[in-house]
Amino acid sequence: MKGLQPAPPSAADSALGANPQADPAPPDDPLTPPSVLRRMACWCYEGILLFGVLFIASYLFSSLSQTRHALDNRAPQMAFLFLVLGIYFVWFWARGQTLAMKTWHIRLVNRQGGRVSQKQALLRYVLSWLWFVPPLALVWLLQLDSRFALVTLLLWVIGWAMLARLHRERQFLHDALAGTRLVNSVRDQAAVKSLS
Question: In this structure, how many other beta carbons lie within 10 angstroms of the beta carbon of residue 135?
Answer without folding.
Answer: 22
